[in-house]
Amino acid sequence: MADKFEGLSKEKRQRIINAGFEVFSQNDYRRASTDEIAARAGISKGLLFYYFHNKKSLYLYLFEYLKKMLIKLVVDERFMEITDFFEILEYSTQKKMEIWKKHPYFLDFAMRTYFSEKEDVSPFLKKTYKELEVVLYRQCFSHVDTYKFREGIDPFHVLKLLVWMSDGYLREVNMQGNGWDMEEIKKEYDGWIRMLRREAYKEEYWREEDKWESSK
Amino acid sequence: MADKFEGLSKEKRQRIINAGFEVFSQNDYRRASTDEIAARAGISKGLLFYYFHNKKSLYLYLFEYLKKMLIKLVVDERFMEITDFFEILEYSTQKKMEIWKKHPYFLDFAMRTYFSEKEDVSPFLKKTYKELEVVLYRQCFSHVDTYKFREGIDPFHVLKLLVWMSDGYLREVNMQGNGWDMEEIKKEYDGWIRMLRREAYKEEYWREEDKWESSK
DNA sequence: TGAAGATTGACCGACCTGGTCAATGGATGC
DNA sequence: GCATCCATTGACCAGGTCGGTCAATCTTCA
To answer: Which of A102, A130, B28, B88 has minimal Cβ neighbours within 10 Å of its Cβ?
Structure first.
């Protein structure tokens, strides 16, 4: 399909892809203009259509790209080895952050695809997401050490809080730009995670530093 | 200005206002179309321009409306009386939620106005926000009981976590539609807040039920 | 020098935009 | 029945933007 496009230099390909993600992440499909994409990529509109025959195929290309990247970057072999609940979360938050740094518009784009309706392109997206969800959630948390949790603590609830927190955390990091006190925010976040771990786990599964810190 | 508009029935006025917030919250100013607003309000475009002479004044009307509502709904007399940090947060989260329920597009609209750039309407917004921020933050947290916090705990950090959490929480609630297990999510959220309170406050300022729960 | 591919941007017709306005409807008072 | 007044409509306008095209140029390299 986009064979011409694949032959490009990595840098140029990346520029175009980023421009696409940027514009499609900020407007819905209908209102995201190819003019703008071409401009932000620093190429002429003609060239954009030389690579992708039309808007729709450009969009679907980006969507496929996103899908591949997410699976490749998040669910790697290391990921599947981790059995500790908090380590999985920590690992995936870190991964998520790397992705965000490298592709700032990925997550917004993904959100928009997820909630798109009545667009030329929506039905295809809906179907794909159903499949993806299963892979990313069910399978990943199937081999978690649930015995470490205290009685009465539901890992699913803990997960939800962590998702809330990491969303907010990531947004904060993202706002600061390439931030001056990024390190501090990270430390802060880690502190809260340690607290949560102490709260949710039986004492024998706390980390060494947590025990020390808590008994001061 | 919009004197004709003020004479309308409450129901109709509300319909138009909601339509405006909806469309302006989903697209940036330039791309939000008056056609769509009129359609969603169930009136003709001509009538919309009969009430508001042009797009800009409609937009600014909505912005003023938002401002008044926020101040009226969030910063009431009760709010100013609270001195306990967690109570203030609880109160404002609850208020925020009420607003969200009543005006589902308020917050998105507000976010968009806050980040709008290079629009016909942006400079005015920027200025207004500077003023508003002072009122909503500085003044509100100036009379907080800081003595309740443990040594080494920075209330500002706690605040940040709470904002992260409540953002995620609110989004979750919002997603569920008029939700079936809204109550459960609320309970969950409250549980986490209690935990955080135990973590941040000196023991003598915990609530009764927290002490009991924690010493089980 | 020339052939092939990469790249441009002016250009097209279709559609959408904010905004207008003559025409209609319905209420009210006479 | 008629006249007045205002709310309301939607066809219409001129200007702009859209996805998409294409003849003309620029690059590359043999």
So the answer is: A130
